Amino acid sequence: MSTRATTGQRAAAGTADYLDQRTGVGTAVKGFARKIFPDHWSFLLGEIALYSFVILILSGFFLTMFFVPSMTLIVYEGPLAAMNGVEMSEAFASTLDLSFEVTGGLLMRQIHHWAALLFMAAIVTHMMRVFFTGAFRKPREINWVVGFVLMILGLAAGFTGYSLPDDVLSGNGLRITDGVVKSIPVVGSYMSYFIFGGEFPGEHIIPRLFTLHILLIPGLILALIGLHLFLVVLHKHTHFPGPGRTQRNVVGFPLFPVYVAKAGGFFFIVFGVLALMAGTMTINPVWNYGPYDPSPVAAGAQPDWYMLFLEGGLRLMPGATEFVIAGYTLSLNVLIPAVVIPGLLFTALAAYPFIEAFATGDKREHHLLDRPRNAPVRTGIGVAILTAFFILLLAGANDLIATHFAMSLNDITYIFRVLFFVAPVVAFWATKRLCLGLQRKDRELVLHGHETGRIVRFADGEYIEVHKPLDEYERWIRVQHEPRRPLEILPEHDERGVRRKGYHRDALRARVSRFFYEDRIEPVTPAELAAAHSHGEHDALEGRPSSDGVPAEIASGPSVDARDR
Amino acid sequence: MKAIAARRHHRLAPVALLLLALLVTGGLYAALAPSAASASAPSEDDIAAGRALFQANCATCHGPSAEGREGAPSLIGVGAAAVDFQVSTGRMPMQMDGAQAMAKPPQFNAEETSQLAAYVASLGAGPAIPSAEQVDPSLGDAANGGALFRTNCAMCHGAIGKGGALSEGKYAPNLGPSTPTQIYEAMQTGPQSMPVFNDANLTPEEKRDIIAFLGEQDAGSPGGTDLGAIGPVGEGIWVWVVGMGLLIACAVWIGAKSS
């Protein structure tokens, strides 16, 4: 093979040099190419969301070519017999045209809608990963908030999008939105008029939603994704604890060529899965629902899954909480489930990194992730929030549960009303106990090794089971974390008996800290490990002059002073 | 023909044409118009056989002469349509007390069902079993039927009749397995929780339009498998199971160490 560069190589080098001399892009490319990403499947969840968004933009671009965002009434003439001669808005008619006349239109519609559901599912899963591994801790609190806002924008994008076809199902959703807005005291009815340009449904809502859906919200999402990824690059990626992994390094593979191939390939996998789903599974068959008309409501009317928790809240709330005060209606039956509860749930989620930082008083940076079991209260809180969310989801589908499992709708609703309050508490308690149990198991493993199932009988008749000690890597994962203890605070009065400033704040902090860290299992210390090992040696010396050398095997582990490094 | 053509400007020609048109319309109406009475009048034998079947299978609840009892309605005047619906769908005889009578494989064959219907119809005038033409989906207008269905039926049976929940364990059943005759009879007689849609409320033609609309649903979904046509909840389950399931499996594969 000749050492001379080919024409292609020379052209590429020339172009690169031309660009580098004029923009200095070489430094950036070099920096990016050498950027290290750690290997773990859960670090790819955010990528699923990113790629779904790219696919949403591409397929949405196609849909805007044919969709007509207008509420002008026309009479449908087309291939769909069940709609021929029916009066409908241009928005609905153009959605039917997209589905039945535009080549590839139905596939694109279905890709777009499946991608929207997947986008939200991936965001929620990614958020769970970040939450349960503690990846939101300093310096990443701001990026958690950016991600949280992205999730809210995702909800908004989904809601404005599925309302666009102007079908009966999404129209019912808009009617609920109208009711929720009107339930806000004093300003509610004015806000509803403002949103709909008059009395519901009016003639403006579809064009307005369209502008939000294709311009404002995707623009904001795009900008915030930019910020989100910029911060990921700036902070560098977190990694799970393991040999050689510290707070000051990132262990993984470089972006080029490994992650360019892995992540680039993953995009096509996401696209492939979405195309497979869109090609084989119907989604949002608006031709079944029919054009919007404020009078009909179909049984089984539910929003897309990420909005279902709001529907569930509305279905659970007793209707008796509507009051008429001096001629004005206060609809707590709508206000509480649709505004107050989601507001509280979302605020808690957005503020969680700050609450935990307050409890720990920890100002250091964290680049090593927690194993969820090592933060039992955090894991418990996460599971409790998910449980509440899941109960609301199920309540939103209570009619389907009733018909599919032959149960009484009323009973299901009563049960969920109780479960909404009880299940998160039980889930918190159970998760915390499970985490503590797993930590005990880790201690047990580190101190005594794996059970081998091999029973040995000594000459004096004693039976023991042989334990195989953990290797260094296994042990490191189980002992590397630092124990977190409740904060100790200074006494209320100083030595001169003067009340200390800021005592109340400290007392609150101590209470929160006790809630988080009072029940804990601390990792095995080197001293404890040494004691356990010498115990083994002691047996070996005293119990048995021994031919098979098992106790010596137990004692022969390397020391774990590494955790003090 | 030539003789007719020559007289086509005769001043009585319009009158003759009008009479001819009236005659054709009237004749066609007489021949085609649905008539409850015309549905093959049952014989005395049928009624007697029906009475025997009734005494053996129905009288325990509905009373020896169908006058009704505590919890079981009188059947006098419910008509043949109600009997045909309840018995041909297996709802009657009722399997067990519950929130509502469930459909099950019918206990009686078509002949026995018609005998029972003839007996109950003989007790008092009521809606008759519709003729084949009245329930022929190909004669209906599916688009109009869809609009009527959304206004009158969808709030219980769902957008395309896949069923829905009612209170206290009652439910509106899936209309997929129902025959056109059963759908017509249900609208006319209003079984269980269902309201009656009489001919003033939904004309026989409109009922046939609804049957045509429901018939359209048998063609399946143009977008692939319909996932049970239960709406966004089903779609949400599948995006997690299939979408996230496949992609997490792929992520585990990609995220595995290459070494």
Automatic annotation (TrEMBL), chain B:
<keyword id="KW-0679">Respiratory chain</keyword>
<dbReference type="InterPro" id="IPR009152">
    <property type="entry name" value="bc1_cytC-su"/>
</dbReference>
<feature type="signal peptide">
    <location>
        <begin position="1"/>
        <end position="30"/>
    </location>
</feature>
<keyword id="KW-0408">Iron</keyword>
<keyword id="KW-0249">Electron transport</keyword>
<dbReference type="InterPro" id="IPR050597">
    <property type="entry name" value="Cytochrome_c_Oxidase_Subunit"/>
</dbReference>
<keyword id="KW-0349">Heme</keyword>
<keyword id="KW-1003">Cell membrane</keyword>
<feature type="binding site" description="axial binding residue">
    <location>
        <position position="62"/>
    </location>
    <ligand>
        <name>heme c 1</name>
    </ligand>
</feature>
<feature type="binding site" description="axial binding residue">
    <location>
        <position position="157"/>
    </location>
    <ligand>
        <name>heme c 2</name>
    </ligand>
</feature>
<feature type="binding site" description="covalent">
    <location>
        <position position="61"/>
    </location>
    <ligand>
        <name>heme c 1</name>
    </ligand>
</feature>
<keyword id="KW-0479">Metal-binding</keyword>
<keyword id="KW-0812">Transmembrane</keyword>
<dbReference type="Pfam" id="PF13442">
    <property type="entry name" value="Cytochrome_CBB3"/>
</dbReference>
<dbReference type="InterPro" id="IPR036909">
    <property type="entry name" value="Cyt_c-like_dom_sf"/>
</dbReference>
<keyword id="KW-1133">Transmembrane helix</keyword>
<dbReference type="GO" id="GO:0005506">
    <property type="term" value="F:iron ion binding"/>
</dbReference>
<keyword id="KW-1278">Translocase</keyword>
<dbReference type="GO" id="GO:0005886">
    <property type="term" value="C:plasma membrane"/>
</dbReference>
<keyword id="KW-0677">Repeat</keyword>
<keyword id="KW-0813">Transport</keyword>
<feature type="binding site" description="covalent">
    <location>
        <position position="153"/>
    </location>
    <ligand>
        <name>heme c 2</name>
    </ligand>
</feature>
<feature type="binding site" description="covalent">
    <location>
        <position position="156"/>
    </location>
    <ligand>
        <name>heme c 2</name>
    </ligand>
</feature>
<feature type="domain" description="Cytochrome c">
    <location>
        <begin position="45"/>
        <end position="124"/>
    </location>
</feature>
<keyword id="KW-0472">Membrane</keyword>
<keyword id="KW-0732">Signal</keyword>
<comment type="subunit">
    <text>The cytochrome bc1 complex is composed of a cytochrome b (QcrB), the Rieske iron-sulfur protein (QcrA) and a diheme cytochrome c (QcrC) subunit.</text>
</comment>
<feature type="transmembrane region" description="Helical">
    <location>
        <begin position="237"/>
        <end position="256"/>
    </location>
</feature>
<dbReference type="InterPro" id="IPR009056">
    <property type="entry name" value="Cyt_c-like_dom"/>
</dbReference>
<dbReference type="GO" id="GO:0020037">
    <property type="term" value="F:heme binding"/>
</dbReference>
<feature type="binding site" description="covalent">
    <location>
        <position position="58"/>
    </location>
    <ligand>
        <name>heme c 1</name>
    </ligand>
</feature>
<protein>
    <recommendedName>
        <fullName>Cytochrome bc1 complex cytochrome c subunit</fullName>
        <ecNumber>7.1.1.8</ecNumber>
    </recommendedName>
</protein>
<dbReference type="GO" id="GO:0008121">
    <property type="term" value="F:quinol-cytochrome-c reductase activity"/>
</dbReference>
<feature type="domain" description="Cytochrome c">
    <location>
        <begin position="140"/>
        <end position="218"/>
    </location>
</feature>
